[in-house]
Amino acid sequence: MEVSGIELWQWHQDAIAVAKSENIPVGEINWLLREFTGLEALSLRLGSFKGKPQVKMQISLADLSKLWEQRVTQRVPVQYLVQLSHWRHFCLTVSPAVLIPRPETECLIELAMSYHSGIEGDWVDLGTGSGAIALGLAEAFPQATIHAVDVSPEALTIARQNALRLGFADRIEFYQGDWWQPLAGQISGLAGMVANPPYIPTQMVSQLQPEVAWHEPHLALDGGVDGLDCVRQLIQSAPDYLQPRGIWLVELMAGQAPMVVELLQASGAYLNIQIHTDLAGIERFVLAQID
């Protein structure tokens, strides 16, 4: 289907005005239009498409307006509207069954690559969600098999789709279950574990911005009273699955890293315990190795 350039330009201008009044990033409008029209970012920024007699669209302008209305009135994240999220250089399928991968989570892959020297073997991504971390690990460690676990069958469906579409289906093994449970008795001697577990304290989940609290899966957000219930499980069980000097690496909420360091120290099973910051300087990650 097609629409005139001037008609689409006017829709664009109206949407920008609404976005500004609703404190929605204007760039999200261009994202929607890029996905459904194929227009280049520069053309959208300059408005040069205004002069086109016709612009091809994958959906009608009326349907585009309905999607934009969901973004504005229901605060549906734009990633869910287009069912895509860009992470590292991957274009991932997403749905409300999985968390939208955040840019800061990319640092987990960089940390794993930086500290794996001398450690050979396979890796595990616990709580894989969309499969983003598993895909990053598969690319970073081409000789390794990546074991990806999630308790949600809906999330695993999305993760498998991403692995297949991006060419990593033969490198990632998927398991449904709670953290280490589906690997019990099957897997040991792993080179490393990476996880972005639920870490939001229960009472804070409803206070998150509407895009998160209303639409992203609470199963992947709610970390219990202090946000560290799942982290405690990962600390307790990891030594049974990781090789000596194997890497334990998690993402956390701001302010939680010192407590996680204390938990790791108290377990007596870890050494080289380190806190790492994200690109904004927030203490976001804790890395340790099995003693």
Automatic annotation (TrEMBL):
GO terms for biological process: methylation. SUPFAM superfamilies: S-adenosyl-L-methionine-dependent methyltransferases (SSF53335). Residues 124-180 form the Methyltransferase domain. One of its GO terms (molecular function) is nucleic acid binding. InterPro entries: DNA_methylase_N6_adenine_CS (IPR002052), HemK-like (IPR004556), Methyltranfer_dom (IPR025714), RF_glutamine_MTase_cyano (IPR052663), RF_methyltr_PrmC (IPR019874), SAM-dependent_MTases_sf (IPR029063). Substrate binds at N196, P197, P198, Y199. The keyword S-adenosyl-L-methionine applies. It catalyses: L-glutaminyl-[peptide chain release factor] + S-adenosyl-L-methionine = N(5)-methyl-L-glutaminyl-[peptide chain release factor] + S-adenosyl-L-homocysteine + H(+). S-adenosyl-L-methionine binds at G127, T128, G129, S130, G131, D150, W179, N196. Its EC number is 2.1.1.297. The keyword Glycosyltransferase does not apply. Keywords: Methyltransferase, S-adenosyl-L-methionine, Transferase. It is an enzyme of class 2 (transferase). It comes from the Bacteria. Signal peptide: none annotated. Methylates the class 1 translation termination release factors RF1/PrfA and RF2/PrfB on the glutamine residue of the universally conserved GGQ motif. HAMAP family: RF_methyltr_PrmC. Belongs to the protein N5-glutamine methyltransferase family. PrmC subfamily. NCBIfam families: hemK_fam, RF_mod_PrmC. This is Release factor glutamine methyltransferase. It comes from Merismopedia glauca CCAP 1448/3.
